[in-house]
Amino acid sequence: MNNSRKIEFDDLAQVLTWRTTEYDTLTALRAEYAESLRIAMGRFLDELTAIEPRSAEPLLTVLDSTGDDRLISILTTPATSCRLITRRYSREEVRAHLLAEITAPGARTRVGYLGVVIGRIPVFRDPDNAPMRPVAERIDRVFTGIATRSAAPVHYLPMVVRELWLRADRVRTGFLSNSPRGFVGRAVLTNPDLGIVDDVIVAEAVIHEATHGLLGMSEAVGLVAGTPWLRRAMPDDGRCRVVSPWTGRGLDLPTYLHACFVWWGLLHLWAGLLGTGLFDECRVRGRLRRAAAGFVDGAVAARLAECREVVDPALLRCLERMSERALGLLADMESSPYTDRAAQ
Questions:
Q1: What is the pLDDT of residues 77-127, one digit of tens each?
Q2: Which of 69, 95, 263, 318 is deepest in the core (most CB within 10 A)?
């Protein structure tokens, strides 16, 4: 199967400008993602039926009586999509998981559910971990405030984040956010209850991980359709490790590509909140400058010179356009009347 994408890389970049006009684009991507998961499940069921028909019967029986909305909800759960898209699990593990999910009452009965929903996103915590309800309430408050100034980020969140996990790890000394690779739509905040974590950090972390959810959907669509972001396996000679212009760390190629979109999305988030008074203007301007920093030399795509043959050419062109547009946005910020006030 080698179908063309309905949602192109430039469309992803447009969604990450956080404008309500991009709602239809994101809706289309979600539909494309759901259809890709249907196809992946169909392939799995065909394989299971051919090799282990007796094992497949109970699963096929419950699927016949599962409504379409319920099935889509199950397929797009991070733990389910990971089992269908990646090759980390055995046939029996995938079969058992699907059967358990279809016969389970729903996400809010799972171990760790905190009893809190933020914009339709269920919030979880590790069992026997630190109290996290106040953190969840704070996140809800932060994004309720953002919605009064910029509706799109809040409106889009539940479309790309299926689960928000709050963890305490006192072995770590600081705060961390991440999206486990392969688990599309699972955002994890570690130590969000620390005193150093203010509203700006909370907002940026959630949007950061939401962007990974968006990109994960696009990657999954490409893998199922035979049009992956990476056209072939990466060489193992280290040429495809790229130094991030934002953090200075060496990143593998998929992580670097994600980073470009993440920082692009953060650039537009803070540009949209500049001058609103919702956050401290100095902090907003600082986060905006940090997001723009990796784009200022215009070399986001040029850094991929050693492994350009691996990356989808359309993705490379998109990165080049993002870099050009970021420079224009930064110039607009420098001429903003809020710049002088923030610098005082």
A1: 999 999 999 989 999 999 999 999 998 866 555 667 888 888 889 999 877
A2: 263
Q: DSSP string of 147-171?
A: HTT-HHHHHHHHHH-SEEEEE--TT
- Phi and psi based region of residue 318 (left: phi greater than 0; alpha: psi -120 to 50; beta: remaining): alpha
Residue 302: per-residue pLDDT: 85
Give CA–CA dist 2/312, Å, rounded. Answer: 14
How do beta strands 186-190 and 250-252 pair?
Answer: unpaired
The answer to whether the beta carbons of residues 20 and 155 sit under 8 Å apart is yes
Q: Give CA–CA dist 26/21, Å, rounded.
A: 10
Length of the chain: 344
The residue type found at 177 is: S
Residue 1: Cβ within 10 Å count: 8
Q: What pairing do the DSSP bridges indicate for beta strands 186-190 and 176-178? A: antiparallel
Instruction: Quote the CA–CA distance of 163 and 120 in Å, as a whole number.
Output: 9
Instruction: Read off the tokens for 48.
Output: 């299971």
Cα 288 versus chain centre, distance: 20
Mean pLDDT of the chain: 88
Query: What are 330's two structure tokens?
Result: 């930064």
Q: What CA–CA distance (Å, rounded) separates 106 from 258?
A: 31
Give which of 231, 211, 166, 184 is closest to 75, Cα–Cα. 184
Sign of CA dihedral 279, 280, 286, 288: positive
DSSP letter at 187? E
**CB within 8 Å of 83: residues ≥ 6 apart:** 89, 93, 94, 97, 98
- Residue 36 CA to residue 58 CA, distance in Å, equals 23
pTM of the model: 0.91
The Cα 333–Cα 314 span in angstroms is 29
Nearest to 203 by CA among 187, 181, 215: 187
Nearest to 78 by CA among 176, 226, 180, 223: 180
For residue 42, what is the DSSP state? H
